[in-house]
Amino acid sequence: MVISVRDTFFMLNPKNWSFIREVRGACRLLRQTGAQWIQQRKTAMRNGEVPKDILTQIIKSAGKEEIMTQEDEELMLDNFLTFFIAGQETTANQLGFCIMELGRHPDILERVKKEVDEAIGMKQDISYDDLGHLGYLSQVLKETLRLYPTAPGTSRELKEDMVIGGVHVPGGVVCVFSSYGMGRMEMFFKDPLKFDPDRFDPDAPKPYYCYFPFSLGPRSCLGQNFAQMEAKVVMAKLIQRFDFTLLPGQSFDILDTGTLRPKSGVLCSLRHRDHRK
């Protein structure tokens, strides 16, 4: 869908047909594999095995199996695949961009280190309550998504005619919104290309309707809270245990394949932190 919005004739071009077949085949494999996992988990749950994970919660929230329709089964599969697909690549890309910016801003990195050391010390496991004490790290992650939204845009189909910014837009038209573009516009963010986590300080003015890395409204990303907790835990553990510096000579170019990622990755040198200092 993303490609079709960008290029209306993409699917009609014979040069793209092999790619389209590959994508459709991958989608079929994902759905077949996901359906198998769901059935295996249902069998395990009937036998008294109830792992505490997302798949179990999705199955429980779907309702009683004996009254579920085929549509209910498809919805459950859709929800599972959404978490499975959207919850790993995008978060990994966000973490890559975050490490890149922290490596380029040692002062910000030192401030995050201090917060992590004070909030969790050398604890092996990070609790939900601990995350509430990592406010500056949250600001760093939000600022990362402002400059590098891993989903760089979204779209909405208008139900009826509207006037947007003085422009008449007829109903039925698909409008595309660029979170990447809006996050870098001077009219919304002062000095927009500067990496500044203090933009998201609790006392700072809130950037309404121009910051939407997870979209907005009732169709916003259902996994956004989970994704941000996941990112915060990974970054906190990385900073707790390691010092890292960026290797020289990297381009830090961005690659857009429907999601944003560092084009050549982010290369660092790592060493265990010495907490005896």
From TrEMBL:
Keyword match Cell membrane: no
A Pfam match is p450
What Gene Ontology terms for biological process does this UniProt record contain? Answer: cholesterol catabolic process
* Alphabetic keyword roster: Heme, Iron, Metal-binding, Monooxygenase, Oxidoreductase
Q: GO MF terms on file?
A: cholesterol 24-hydroxylase activity; heme binding; iron ion binding
Q: Does the keyword Transport apply?
A: no
Sites binding heme sit at 221
Required co-factor(s) are: heme
Q: Which residues cross the membrane?
A: none
Q: Which InterPro entries match?
A: CYP46A1 (IPR039983), Cyt_P450 (IPR001128), Cyt_P450_CS (IPR017972), Cyt_P450_E_grp-I (IPR002401), Cyt_P450_sf (IPR036396)
* Superkingdom: Eukaryota
Name the protein family. Answer: Belongs to the cytochrome P450 family.
Q: What is this protein called?
A: Uncharacterized protein
